[in-house]
Amino acid sequence: MKLSTKGRYGLRALADLAINSNGSPVSVASIASRQNISGNYLESIFSTLKKAGIVRSTKGVNGGYALKESADCICIGDVLRTLEGDLSIIDSDSIEKESGAKTLRMCIEENVWNVVSSRIEDVVDSTTLKDIIEN
């Protein structure tokens, strides 16, 4: 698994939002400026996060985005899956399922790739946005 800029920037933007919101919406422009990310790109990321129910938006002069839940309730795994999709390190569709005895390929998938993917998921699913901003 290699995270794209969408996942990396999205996580940075959410951390920035959590740090700078103080209970009120934060504009995409201010986050983009602090994080040196394109505002248009960041807007598309926030649109995806809004559809997933991770952030909410407020329109108007003092509008912007806010976390829909507290930072300790937002799991990094949910954010990354929303922005990146499946977090597996290999595409399971690319592994041929052969009948009969286990093949070497299937043994490596079960004993290495699936274990590594599971450990990655354990880490991102046990880490919250609050963990990131406190550390």
Structure description:
This protein is mostly helical. The protein has one domain: Arc Repressor Mutant, subunit A (Orthogonal Bundle). The protein contains 6 helices and 2 strands, in the order αααββααα. Strands 1-2 form a two-stranded antiparallel sheet. A hairpin with a 5-residue loop joins β1 and β2. It is elongated and about 60 Å long. The two termini are 24 Å apart. The mean pLDDT is 90.
Summarize the structure.
By secondary structure, this protein is mostly helical. The chain has six helices and two strands; from the N terminus they run αααββααα. 55% of the residues lie in helices and 6% in strands.
Q: How many β strands by DSSP?
A: 2
Q: What class do helices, strands and sheet pairing give?
A: mainly alpha
Q: Would you state the CATH class?
A: Mainly Alpha
Shape descriptor: elongated
Number of domains: 1
- Order of secondary-structure elements: HHHEEHHH
Low-pLDDT stretches: none
CATH names the topology as Arc Repressor Mutant, subunit A
Name the CATH superfamily classification: Winged helix-like DNA-binding domain superfamily/Winged helix DNA-binding domain
Number of helices: 6
Q: Indicate the mean pLDDT.
A: 90
**Largest sheet geometry:** 2 strands, antiparallel
Q: Per DSSP, what share of the residues sits in E-state strands of 2 or more residues?
A: 5-15%
Within the largest sheet, what's the order of strands? 1-2
Label the CATH architecture.
Orthogonal Bundle
- The first-to-last residue Cα distance is 24 Å
Radius of gyration: 18 Å
